[in-house]
Every structure is written in C-alpha cells, then in structure tokens.
Amino acid sequence: MLRILDAHSQCAAIPFETELYHNPANYAKRHELLYFWLAELKNIYNYRQNQFLIEKTPKHILHINNILKDFPKAKFILMLRDGREAVASMKKRKEFNYDTALQRWINDNQAAISHLDAHYLYLVKLEALKENPVNTMKGVLSFLGLSFEEEILNYHKNPKHFFGSKTFSKSEYDNTHHNDFRNWQVNQPILENKTTWMQELTQEEKIAFFEKAQDLLIKFNYEHDAKWLKNSL
Predict the structure, then answer these.
(1) What would the pLDDT profile of 158-190 be if each residue is shown by its tens digit?
(2) Span 151-158, mean pLDDT?
(3) Domain 2-232 in CATH: superfamily?
(4) How far from 39 is each of 15, 32, 117, CA to CA, in Å?
(5) Between 169 and 206, the higher pLDDT residue
(6) What is the C-alpha to C-alpha distance for residues 52 and 38, in angstroms, rounded to an integer?
(7) In angstroms, what CA-CA distances link 164 with 32, 46, 122?
(8) HEC states along 137-177?
(9) Domain ranges in the chain?
(10) What is the pLDDT of residues 218-229, one digit of tens each?
(11) What gap in Å lies between CA 185 and CA 99, rounded to an integer?
(12) Three-state secondary structure of the chain
C-alpha cells in the first residue's frame, strides 16, 4: 500500500518506518524529526506541501489517539491480512517465534477494533487488494479525497529504495538481509492470493491460533465458524 500510494501525484512516502510514536526516544523529539524528514523529502523526492505525507509503521496502530492529538486531520489506512497467513510469515523473522507472532497479530488488531467505525480510519484487506486492485484503490483514494490515477498500479516500473536498502535484487528471506528482501517486496507488482498457512503452520500452531484468535477471524469475516480448524488438521 505504501508503495502504491507513493506513486500517486498527490502523495509522498517516507521510505522507512519512523516509529515516531512507538519508540520513546523518537516520540520525545517527534516534531524535530518530522520537520527534518520533510526537508529531506523535498530535496530527494520533490515533495510538495500540498501532498499527503504517507508514513508506515505497523506498531502505530497502538498509538492512534496520540497521533490524532498532534495531527487532528490525520487519516489511517489499516492493512489487514488473514491472521493465519500473517503469523505463518512473521514467525520466519528473527524477532519472532510462533507465540510472539500470534500475540503481535492479536494485539495489533484488538487495538484497531475501537477505531473501525471512525471517520479517520479505512480498513483494507490485503486479499481484496490482490483480488481487485483497481476497485480497492479507488476506495482508498476516495477516503483520502483524491482521484484515482491508473499509473499508481504501475509503481513497480519505477522502483524506489525503501527501508535503507541499496539494492533492488531479491535477497534471501533471512535475518541478515531482511530489509533488502522487504525493499525487493515493495517494488514487486501485486501478486495473486495464495493460501500457505495450511502447510506453514503445524497442527499445534493451528489449534493455538483457534484458541487465542478465533474471535478475531470471525470479527473480520475471515471465518464464520470452527470448521476451518477441523478441515486443516
């Protein structure tokens, strides 16, 4: 989503996760840092003051109220993914194991629930973006008060460096080259939906997900009952 919006003529993305409201050191000097980054964007990406500034830090879902205190007109796009797919992916990263990945998905999405009906938040399912990118992005841009531009879906034809990476080559998904891999990912075209959690999660992990997060699967309409667990074991 960050990369797609960055391709819009009225948007500009900060090319890394700022953690302005999650990292205590950054929060203390958030205004100073933000003005510095704005100056950098003007120099590097010709950012204009009338553009939307796009920032992506997933953990900021925990700090929406504080962000709104500083930026009352801020808008939030909540990217949601089937928790089983999200956890299966996260548990491969160095900072997670299965238990911490599952708890992270639960915590983030529980924090989002109280904001779901708010005028400042728009929910986008990753699966919907992959299935119908045009209609999904028309909805996102309408929420932002912007017109749809067909070229935004060709963002991958004009690659940019994100996450401090200096390469556009695909790196192995390992602990050493994680940011290079993420940079490669965001410069790829939108891929088709694939269900991998059935193979990626063990039987014990599926049961644990059901016990701890089944209510969220139902809340976000990924499931309507418990049949998925029985069918996947």
Answers:
(1) 888 777 666 666 655 555 567 777 777 888 899
(2) 93
(3) P-loop containing nucleotide triphosphate hydrolases (3.40.50.300)
(4) 14, 11, 34
(5) 206
(6) 11
(7) 20, 19, 28
(8) HHHHHHHHCCCCCHHHHHHHHCCCCCCCCCCCCCCCCCCCC
(9) 2-232
(10) 999 999 999 999
(11) 25
(12) CHHHHHCCCCEEECCCCCCCCCCHHHHHCHHHHHHHHHHHHHHHHCCCCCCEEECCCHHHHHHHHHHHHHCCCCCEEEEECCHHHHHHHHCCCCCCCHHHHHHHHHHHHHHHHCCCCCCCEEEEEHHHHHHCHHHHHHHHHHHHCCCCCHHHHHHHHCCCCCCCCCCCCCCCCCCCCHHHHHHHHHCCCCCCCCCCHHHHCCHHHHHHHHHHHHHHHHHCCCCCCCHHHHHHC
- Token pair 């891999």 in the structure block, residue: 181
175 CB-near residues (< 8 Å, 6+ apart): 93, 94
- For residue 229, with 0-12 CB atoms within 10 Å meaning exposed, 13-18 middle and 19 or more buried, which class applies? middle
